[in-house]
Amino acid sequence: DDPVSQVDTDTASEIIKGLAGLKNKRTMVIVSHRISALTACDTIYVLKDGTIDDQGSHDSLMKKNGFYRNTHALQL
Fold first, then answer.
1. Three-state DSSP class for residue 10
2. Which of 15, 17, 52 is nearest to 5 (CA)?
3. The pLDDT value given to residue 64
4. How far is CA 9 from its chain centroid?
5. Which long-range contacts (CB under 8 A, 24 or more apart) does 60-69 make?
6. How far from 18 is each of 15, 24, 40, 68, 73, CA to CA, in Å?
7. Whole-angstrom Cα distance, residue 26 to residue 18?
8. CA 46 to CA 26: how far, in whole Å?
9. Per DSSP, what are the bridge partners of residue 51?
């Protein structure tokens, strides 16, 4: 479930930092509408209409002019 959907921005940042500290120790699946929760992920899957529309790291998705990059700009 989205780990930061029901918290304020400061609390969300603390949760994300905590999750990032665990990433080298295990495999995690994070489902989120908030891009900031995904930026440290190795692979991000962008779903559209129930199928994978795009995938890649945060940096590679930001280089494309797609849904991920547009949503990131809106959330800033």
1. helix
2. 15
3. 96
4. 14
5. 68/35, 68/44
6. 5, 12, 11, 23, 24
7. 13
8. 22
9. 48
Q: pLDDT digit of tens for each residue in the chain (76 aa)?
A: 566 777 887 888 888 788 777 767 778 888 888 888 888 889 999 998 999 999 999 999 999 999 999 999 998 8
Distance in angstroms (rounded) separating the CA atoms of residues 44 and 28: 12
Tokens describing residue 20: 């990032």
Query: Which tokens go with 72?
Result: 């990131």
Token readout for 68 is: 């991920």
Integer Cα distance of 46 and 71 in angstroms: 11
Length of the chain: 76
pTM of the model: 0.77
